[in-house]
């Protein structure tokens, strides 16, 4: 029996009902996006726990969608790092190794602190306006959007911050390190209030950059990572 055929590895209806039925209007407009969101919300709710193998036939039955849409939704979830694809085995919900997560967080602390120190000041008004808009978008997502929207808005904000760093190799290393970590909804955002805390941190970073406060900005970046917020 293969590993993902064991009873403990298979997802089943015993994990509980779906968190909510996909919105019919959204499903009609973009069925893959709606399916992606539905699976992500079930992962976040613990109905599809880390390590659960996601067989396509099971997902077709669970969500009532076509095989092609299921495949495309899984591809998107792999890109979001909520799901991992193992060649010749299949897809499963991303697993977390606490020790490895802490090591990666320490690497992030070193790299992102260095990138913050190198950020040229003053920041051009156009760049500040873009960062403020992205911080606002994340805050809105934190209150009203799905966890996928929150994750995408968070990544967009941090990518824009890194665009300010003149050392492009350092910026690339930061992004690569972030991509090696499980998606935020699987880790940091599983705790109540942490999405809102991230939103406050983002706005504080923009305010520090606008004030030309390098020490304050660097302290905020370090505090953001140490607090465990993504």
From TrEMBL:
The keyword Transcription regulation applies. Residues 29-96 form the HTH gntR-type domain. InterPro entries: GntR_C, TF_FadR/GntR_C, Tscrpt_reg_HTH_GntR, WH-like_DNA-bd_sf, WH_DNA-bd_sf. It comes from the Bacteria. Residues 1-25 are annotated as: Disordered. SMART domains: FCD, HTH_GNTR. Keywords: DNA-binding, Transcription, Transcription regulation. This is Transcriptional regulator, GntR family. It holds the Pfam family FCD.
């Amino acid at each position: 029996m293969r590993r993902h055929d064991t009873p403990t590895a298979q997802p089943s209806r015993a994990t509980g009902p779906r968190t909510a039925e996909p919105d019919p209007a959204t499903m009609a407009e973009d069925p893959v996006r709606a399916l992606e969101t539905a699976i992500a919300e079930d992962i976040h709710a613990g109905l599809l726990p880390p390590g659960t193998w996601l067989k396509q036939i099971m997902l077709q039955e669970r969500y009532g969608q076509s095989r092609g849409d299921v495949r495309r939704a899984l591809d998107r979830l792999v890109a979001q790092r909520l799901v991992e694809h193992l060649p010749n085995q299949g897809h499963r919900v991303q697993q977390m190794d606490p020790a490895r997560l802490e090591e990666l967080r320490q690497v992030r602390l070193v790299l992102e602190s260095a990138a913050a120190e190198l950020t040229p000041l003053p920041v051009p008004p156009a760049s500040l306006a873009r960062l403020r808009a992205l911080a606002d978008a994340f805050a809105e997502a934190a209150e009203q959007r799905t966890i996928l929207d929150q994750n995408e808005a968070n990544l967009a904000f941090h990518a824009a911050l890194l665009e300010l760093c003149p050392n492009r190799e350092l910026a690339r290393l930061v992004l690569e390190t972030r991509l090696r970590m499980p998606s935020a909804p699987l880790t940091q955002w599983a705790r109540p209030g942490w999405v809102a805390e991230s939103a406050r941190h983002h706005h504080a970073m923009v305010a520090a950059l606008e004030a030309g406060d390098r020490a304050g900005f660097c302290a905020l970046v370090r505090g953001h990572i140490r607090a465990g917020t993504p």
